């Protein structure tokens, strides 16, 4: 884990130098050797240049040596920012949550407004630092909520908030896979 974190930190330095707006690898709370890497780039050219760099390729080769599975890359488009804070404003105890929502394609028109309203409602919850809605580039019925909270307690309060409970009840008939919430500890 420590070696992998060092490599991710080195990649982050290269990414920010190349123009990344956000680049952070966070460990899963359980199991702690699973990571999510969330990147935001201002333009495709900067992202392509970063990936083509020999330094980047060398760091990814190092990372592959300590990985237990290949990366699961999901390029996406930001649909809505309910709340966003600068990428470097992490406090001690922050947690990051990535929620995967797979909507049955025939229900996309009914589900997407529910998700967007949930993002808007959630941005005002206590302890929320970030709440973003992202869609996969080529699979527009697959969404990710990228969320950051002050701590576990703020996340727990969000999950049990009345608007969260109502959202999950309303969304349930429209999803084709379990509502998949993954919690990560911010290390950087």
Looking at this protein, list some descriptive labels.
188 residues; alpha+beta; five-stranded antiparallel beta sheet; two-stranded antiparallel sheet; 6 helices
Description of the structure:
The protein is of the alpha+beta class. The protein has 6 helices and 7 strands. The strands form 2 sheets. The protein has a 5-stranded antiparallel beta sheet with strand order 3-5-6-4-7. Strands 1-2 form a two-stranded antiparallel sheet. The radius of gyration is 17 Å and the shape is globular.
Along the chain, the helix and strand elements come as HEEHHEEHEEHHE
Report the structural category.
Answer: alpha+beta
**Rg (CA only):** 17 Å
Helicity, in percent? 25-40%
- List low-confidence stretches: none
Question: Count of DSSP helices?
Answer: 6
Cα shape: globular
| Number of separate strands | 7
Report the portion of residues in β strands: 25-35%
Q: In whole angstroms, how far apart are the ends? A: 14 Å
Biggest beta-sheet profile: 5 strands, antiparallel
- Strand line-up of the largest beta sheet: 3-5-6-4-7
Arithmetic mean pLDDT:
84
């Amino acid at each position: 884990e420590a070696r992998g974190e060092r490599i991710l930190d080195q990649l982050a330095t290269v990414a920010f130098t190349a123009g990344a707006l956000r680049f952070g690898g966070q460990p899963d709370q359980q199991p702690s050797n699973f990571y999510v890497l969330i990147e935001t780039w201002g333009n495709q050219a900067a992202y392509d240049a970063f990936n083509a760099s020999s330094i980047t390729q060398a760091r990814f080769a190092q990372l592959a040596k300590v990985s237990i599975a290949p990366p699961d890359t999901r390029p996406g488009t930001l649909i809505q920012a309910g709340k966003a804070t600068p990428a470097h404003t992490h406090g001690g105890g922050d947690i990051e949550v990535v929620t995967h929502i797979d909507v049955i394609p025939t229900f996309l028109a009914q589900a997407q407004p529910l998700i967007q309203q949930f993002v808007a409602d959630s941005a005002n919850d206590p302890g929320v630092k970030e709440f973003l809605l992202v869609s996969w580039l080529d699979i527009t019925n697959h969404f990710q909520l990228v969320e950051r909270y002050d701590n576990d307690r703020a996340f727990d309060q969000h999950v049990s908030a009345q608007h969260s409970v109502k959202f999950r009840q309303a969304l349930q008939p429209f999803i084709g896979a379990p509502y998949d919430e993954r919690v990560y500890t911010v290390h950087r």
